[in-house]
Design a protein that fits this description.
This protein folds into 2 domains: 193 residues, Rossmann fold (3-Layer(aba) Sandwich); 162 residues, Rossmann fold, CATH 3.40.50.2000. It contains 16 helices and 12 strands. The chain has a 6-stranded parallel β-sheet, sandwiched between helices. A 6-stranded parallel β-sheet has the order 9-8-7-10-11-12, sandwiched between helices.
Length: 375
Amino acid sequence: MGSKPARLLMLCAYPPAAAATRFRICGYLDALRSAGIEPEVHPFISDEYFARMYQPTQVTRKALDLAGFALAKLPLLLRSGRYDAVFIQREAALVGPPLLERILVQLRGLPLIYDLDDAVWLEPAPVPGTLRARFPRVISAIRAAAKGDTLLSMATTVVAGSNYLADHARQFCKDVTVLPTVVSREQWRPLPGRLDGAILHDEPLIGWIGTPSTSMYLSMVMPALERLAGEGFRFRLRLRGAAPSIRSDHFPLENLPWRRDHEAEDFAELDVGLGPIRRDPWADGKSGFKQLQYMAVGVPMVTSMVGGTRDFIEHEGNALVAAREEDWYDHIRTLLSDRPRRASLAQAGRRLVEERYSLEAQGRIFVDCMRKAMR
């Protein structure tokens, strides 16, 4: 690539407010620049649009906004000759077929690095109340979800979030590297006492952080928590980003908004983390990011073993795995009462993040994938 910095066009559907963009693109920008690669990031939608995207209102305005976002990407085609490769996180446009990608790759000849962090060849269950739930066939046609496999077949290199996703990608592309979604081990650190198994609150703080679409899985845990409360165990449950309908009359429950600027702090404050998810084809494509976030800040957890968690979770080694309702009860009870067990899980999880599952550990691998595609 010589002394002149290589230029990498990075396209994504969502802005940095979305975890996929924030951690699978923005987290590696410094590593790219240090390696002599100049990244240029272009999300399809804005932060403002993302904030209201799931609200079932302002349909006409949203449609006009999407058309405007598409037109705003046309200048990229005019200056595409300045780039050495194009990196696409899931899709370049939130709607429509992969026209921009085809022009950049097949007509302009740019190598494509495709980032696969979800089972994009499937349709996820819609969030109740959203346009996708009200008009599933229309939204499915507009979204053109099947274009994921088309992009995989166009790719020079694929970066996949788990072994499950990598196996699917290898049907279309020979060069596939597994890179799970991770956080910085320097920015995400355990609070003092956490790795010693200490409970840092007067009452143990059990927690879950996610989105309304995944908070439905909390129903797997609530009976166990109600049973523990009925037996006299004292604790609080803190949710962030969950559907507002989730409540409890059996124990103290805080249902709070998700906070982007305090995400690491919100994870670190928890004494016990929860990672419930039911196994289905869509869930199998999840990378296990929440579980790695718990590990980064040394929070012992009870979790399902689904999707990417199978790549790094070890039952009774770095987490307690629940497959049945009784498991949730037994394992949460253990973590509420057994300090040595909390300490051993916290230490093992943090060690895994420090050694293998962090931005710092993966940065060189990510950069090598970009260089290889450019060559």
